[in-house]
Design a protein that fits this description.
Length: 271
């Protein structure tokens, strides 16, 4: 089983770059499933319905993962989120109770061609702005609730700040899931590896967005933060036309759920 993963389509440049290359990459790698993260697709602050419908128009995306900006445009996106056929899931470990309702799905089992793939979002509780339930305990609960014997693969998108927490999660889940990838830092890493009990890891897939930027922001807009630890004015997205589209292809043994191979890809060009 092949799974093609794209993370963090950032703003207008990211949208245009992704649309320019998505279908050709899909044709080249012929994945069974495609995972895309559109969290920053609308000017870097959460998706809006218009931009999600643009992605829906591209045939072949099976699921959208999300993260800490997912509710930033909630009034615009709430109807899209709560559709019964919505492909967009949110982090599983937001606190919920009889007093607190957090909308829509937080994991999904994809079914296609006789294959079943579980995709889960988790969000770190370390150095993130959101107060969330312990992600280690939450994923343990999820895996105990689901009949994993009936699945062909399990993939987790873990949104976090620290590398130590990522590797701890990897070791905690080794032999229980197929692949764990880390998001939020927007820099593709060079540590793809399959652990001894067959769980694969890639610390960060990177993004589709402005290449010459500070994650996505224009340097002049961010300069004050680095030179005298202050932020003045609006943080503007870099409009330099050079872009990057990054992704990874994960191969999973559909009988054993073991990760077999991880292939990174990165395209840079000018719009």
């Amino acid at each position: 089983m092949k799974v093609l993963i794209f993370w963090d389509i950032y703003g207008r440049i990211g949208r245009n770059a992704f649309k320019k290359h998505f279908l050709s990459l899909k044709e080249q790698y012929k994945p069974d499933f495609v995972i895309v993260n559109p969290e920053n697709i609308s000017s870097g602050r959460g998706p809006i319905e218009k931009h999600m419908k643009e992605l829906d128009a591209l045939w072949g995306i099976d699921i959208y993962t999300s993260w800490n900006h997912i509710f930033d445009n909630y009034d615009d996106i709430k109807n899209y989120l709560e559709k019964s056929d919505s492909k967009l899931i949110r982090p599983a470990n937001f606190y919920e109770s009889e007093h607190v309702y957090v909308p829509w799905k937080w994991y999904k089992i994809l079914e296609k061609k006789g294959l079943k793939l579980l995709v889960v979002n988790l969000m770190s509780s370390v150095f993130m702005r959101d107060d969330v339930y312990n992600p280690f305990l939450k994923i343990d609960e999820i895996l105990k609730e689901i009949n994993t014997d009936d699945l062909n693969g399990i993939i987790i998108d873990f949104h976090r700040e620290t590398t130590s927490e990522m590797y701890a999660m990897w070791m905690f889940l080794d032999g229980k899931i197929s692949f764990l990838f880390w998001t939020h830092t927007h820099i593709q890493t060079n540590d793809e590896l399959v652990f001894p009990k067959w769980t694969g890891l890639l610390t960060d897939v990177w993004m589709s967005g402005p290449l010459y930027s500070i994650i996505w922001a224009d340097f002049e807009a961010m300069k004050s933060r680095f030179l005298w630890w202050m932020l003045k004015g609006k943080i503007d997205q870099s409009l330099d036309p050079h872009y990057v589209v990054s992704a990874c292809l994960v191969e999973i043994d559909e009988k054993t759920k073991k990760c077999l191979n991880i292939e990174k890809m990165r395209l840079t060009w000018k719009l």
